[in-house]
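Sanity check. The docking grid for adenosine-5'-triphosphate depends on where the pocket ends up, so I'm generating a full predicted complex first rather than guessing from homology. Inputs follow.
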Amino acid sequence: MAAPSEPASPPSPTTVRRNPPRRARPPPTPLASAKPKASSLSRLLEDEAAAASIAPPPASSSSPQEERLKVYLRIRPLPNRERCKAVARPIPGKDQRRKPKQAGGGEVCLVPTGPNSVALTVPQSKLLDPKRGRTEVFDGFSAVFSPDSTQLDIFEQVMNPLLDDFLGGKSGLLVAMGPTGSGKTHTIFGSPRNPGVLPLTLRRIFNAQDENKVADRPARSFSLSMFEILSEGKGERILDLLSDAAECVLQQSAIKGLQEVPLSNFADAENLISRGMLKRSTAATNANSKSSRSQCIITIHGVRKSGDADSDSLSRAVLTIADLAGAERERKTGNQGSRLLESNFINNTSMVFSLCLRSLLEHQKNQKKPLEMHFKNSMMTRYLRDYLEGRKKMTLILNVKPADDDYLDTSFLLRQASPYMKIKYTSLDDSSDLVSTKRSNASLIYQENKKKRKFQKPEVLVVERKKNTDTDNITKVSEEDEAQHKFLSSELQRVSRSETIMTNFARALWTVLKQYKNKLLESENAAESMKELIRDKDTQIMQLKKELEILNSHCSCKNVLVTEDASIDRDDSVSSGQSGQNLLSLSSKPDLGCYDASVDNFHLVAGEVSKELTCHGPDNSSARCSLKGESVSCDTSSISLIDEQELSSIGLKVEVQAIHKKLDASERFSEQTSAHTGDIAPSSSHSDNQSDQSFTEHHMLQCQRTEKIRISLSPQCTSCSKKATIEQSEEGTEELSKTTVEDIQHDNNTREVEHPDYLSSSQQVNSETEDVSSSQSSLQLPGMVSPQKKLDELDIEPERCEPGGGKANVEYVTGHSQAPEQRSDCGDLVPCLLKEITSPVKASKAPSKVSEAEEGADKKKGLASRPGGDTKKTRRRLQPAASMMLKELIGVDLDADTKREESGKSSSSVATGMSEELIRLVRARPVRRA
Ligand SMILES: Nc1ncnc2c1ncn2[C@@H]1O[C@H](COP(=O)(O)OP(=O)(O)OP(=O)(O)O)[C@@H](O)[C@H]1O
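Predicted complex below; grid placement will be based on this.
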């Protein structure tokens, strides 16, 4: 052992203690480093440690029951060249004594401070504050071997205990770890001249074998296997160094294909080792000219036959020695390419190894922390699993380099491995390898099952639990495995509990999802039904729209402005004072605006009537049944072209239809107008001189008269539509006069001159055609007096009716309330229910026929009041059937309202009765054909 020739300098004032706390200084014990020929550096460090009251724990401080992991520290000596230079350099002073200088100005950062402690000083080059040094003391090592310690010292202190256990049947492991070039291989293998631990062990084994033979003790058999684990960039490989076979396979903790070479003597064993060393992968790096590139593991299997002759049991023990490849720093080694990959592999393996020990330590500190399975990350740790999990005894020897340049590596190793000395061995597996193998297999099965359980169903888990139970039974082979069994059981319970929780959660989640799915389906069904309903509604809406369009087309005659109707009405009501006086000119009476709704209903009826009755003639004359600015136009221009019979039938048909519709309209109208009776009642109140009874009787007479007139319309229409001759017109007129207008005084002149078209009109069966012809037709028959001429004669300026542009006041009057002139015209037969006082309505087409009656009454009294004196000026026309029906309908409704007020009777019943009577009369009366 080379000892430094220069005393080391004391560490810097700042001291950081690691590991065991300060204790009382133990009594001096014979340590390997405290030998008399120990270096002065060691003695100096011991003095320093004593001065600092740093007392390393004794190696035997732990109780026998609580054996700890032994960690030895060996400080590699400085290279010879540097040592020679250091020897020639004198020690200048005290400060320099505190830290030994290396050759070339280098210093030693690590010095042993005791048999179990070292002091690591931060080099000046790495100090942030050079004035303040910092020294770390690592204590608690089983032994600290100074640089001048020999191989034999290492063997005796480090390997002998393990060897004793091995020879006693206990397995053990010695691992040499440290940075590259720190002397691991040197420590394990040594050299021919300076053999290492392994050769010395083999020598002792065979020496012991010889002693046993001499002592006649049971013979033992030993075998040796040697392999390396390396990486060539494609994963780890196991190569057997004692045979030429291909690479071996690691199965659990056993290596298949690994040759175990029986050992017969030391020489053979030494040759095997030498051969294996030759095959080991080494390479030159900047840090080591012969750097190991693999983890080398040597196993010595010792089989001892039991001393009991009757027993055939064997005691197996394995002594394992691992020479790990040193951790490398790329900056120092300068490795590139494959070397760099090897460096990564080496460093990773060293890290995994350290993690396993760290996890074991933490698990032993806190049992709640599970023992991490870091050993799976590397082949070496998998092979050494039993040792890394604390089931077998293991010993570490840390090889370090004391130079300042190696400060980082040294510091890292000491910080990393110094806690390992706290690892305890409470349940060492001292039984045979068979039991160990069973336990290992059981553990692996458990781990594999634990993996599978995560993805298997509960049914399968039952079987797996049975298997686990069997596995647990296997673990009960040894009583010493009771703790392990408890741990596995607790783990199993925890896993089972977790599985139960997750299973229940999954079931609950599945149930919720099912419920949501059902709700979704229900919602979809509801949406479909709603869609169908909407489609049906749309269809109904479309049908209603079509019907509405049809109705609109039927009511195309609506919304026609009142033009000549007003004049016609006025003409009829004033000039003739005949049955046409019954025509209501409601259109010019905005006071009846409240009847709009009801009148609209009536328009529908009247519109249909007019549609069928509409005839087009050459004169484009039209007659309209006006009602509040709207009228049902009845074009009479083409009446002449229509067959008389057809017209007759049409007339009857129209009459009947009109009657039926009138009944409905009258009912609606009466219902709606009943709400406005209050508006009408005041008007009716104006008839002061007329009693209600007389009014009712008069109205009944009016209705009867109107029916008579209506009955006469059909033959009149048929007679005038086909031939359209004056004679026919006269005949029709005569017929009309005979049957219906007996009380009406007709102008004889108008009988002679009637426009055929006008006469052919079934809607407006007027006895006079001059008004129509003058307004619409250019045909001027002899004897006809143009309206303008008549106006001129009357000196009445024609008024133009504007659609809805004027206001008209409606006054309810009875026949007795009428002016005498009008009463003379109408007599008692045709009462004027409504008297148009003012009629500012203007005609849009033809000038309005001046209501001679009212004009005469208002402006030219006497002229219009004379019953027969204005025969040339007044134009009397038979009201169109529709107009008469309308008038009758309105009159009935109004009367019905009045009557309802008086007697409470329903007007509809009266109307219905009258209509039925009318229908009966129509049907009973044969149609007269021309
Ligand atoms: N205690 C010692 N005394 C004398 N020489 C030593 C000592 N330790 C190591 N050496 C020498 O240092 C050199 C490197 O040693 P070694 O190869 O054992 O280091 P290592 O830790 O195995 O390196 P690597 O991890 O790279 O294999 C060798 O030449 C060896 O002879």
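Relevant for the grid: Residues 872 and 887 are 26 Å apart (CA to CA).
Also worth noting: The chain is about 45% helix and 15% strand.
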